[in-house]
Amino acid sequence: MSSSFITTKDGTQIFYKDWGSKDAQPIVFHHGWPLSADDWDAQMLFFLHEGYRVIAHDRRGHGRSSQTETGNEMNTYAADMAELAAHLDLKGAIHVGHSTGGGEVTRYVAKFGQPQGRVAKAVLIGAVPPIMVKSDKNPGGLPLEVFDGFRKAQAANRAQFFLDIPTGPFYGYNRPAAEVSEGVIRNWWRQGMMGGTKAHYDCIKAFSETDFTEDLKVIDVPVLVMHGTDDQIVPFEDSAPLSSKLLKNGVLKVYDGLPHGMATTHADIINADLLAFFKG
Q1: Is 23 labeled as catalytic in the residue annotation?
Q2: Which pLDDT score is estimated for 238?
Q3: Residue 80 burial by CB count (10 A; 0-12/13-18/19+): exposed, middle or buried?
Q4: Which domains does the chain have, with CATH numbers?
Q5: How many CA atoms lie within 13 A of 43 on its CB side?
Q6: Predicted TM-score (pTM) of this structure
Q7: Which of 193, 247, 276, 278 has its CA 20 to 30 A from that of 94?
Q8: Are the beta carbons of 239 and 55 closer than 8 angstroms?
């Protein structure tokens, strides 16, 4: 089946796409906030044509999945993924996560995927681990006021906020030399507005305040950490280098001047490097 739903133990419906031969190695894509599986269009088609089985789901509260009031935090996101992986009987899977999805991958692989022997490799692209928010333990993080500002903007006018983000920092379209795509901006807005505002609101806390340090430490499968130096959403200095050091088998690949949404704006570069890592 090319797309369907599973119903989790708490009754949440999770939408997913599943393309390609069931005998092929599966790649599972985990989207960022507040998007959906559709954010991986450029990767899903590319790797399908490379002979992989490609899977992407809408996180609870996002996209076509249930607009959940509860469970909008990393432990439940990871548990949802574990239920989907069991339902599809995934083995030797590669999990690729962008931004918030990178946190979901980290928690899932550490808590479920690796212990169950379902995961071969993982990739973190512009990902939120180890932790975003500033604290005594994480003095280089972003102040809580930044994320309070996200919540305030979303509560005041989500539709406008979800235009401002892709028009500006997400894809680096606020940079002087940027080649702006109106279609990419509209697609971001479309995906965001499909989801539930309560779930999106809660997810801001999930992606900014969850500490993935211990998860990263226990992961021993190969992990590629990819990050652009002009990431205005998840600052490079406070995430990727720290994650790669905490991982037992992590490799850091840095993209000079590329934005947070580089898997969309520079899909040719990112896809080629992903393919090399998958085959390596």
Answers
A1: no
A2: 86
A3: buried
A4: 3-279 (3.40.50.1820)
A5: 33
A6: 0.98
A7: 193
A8: no
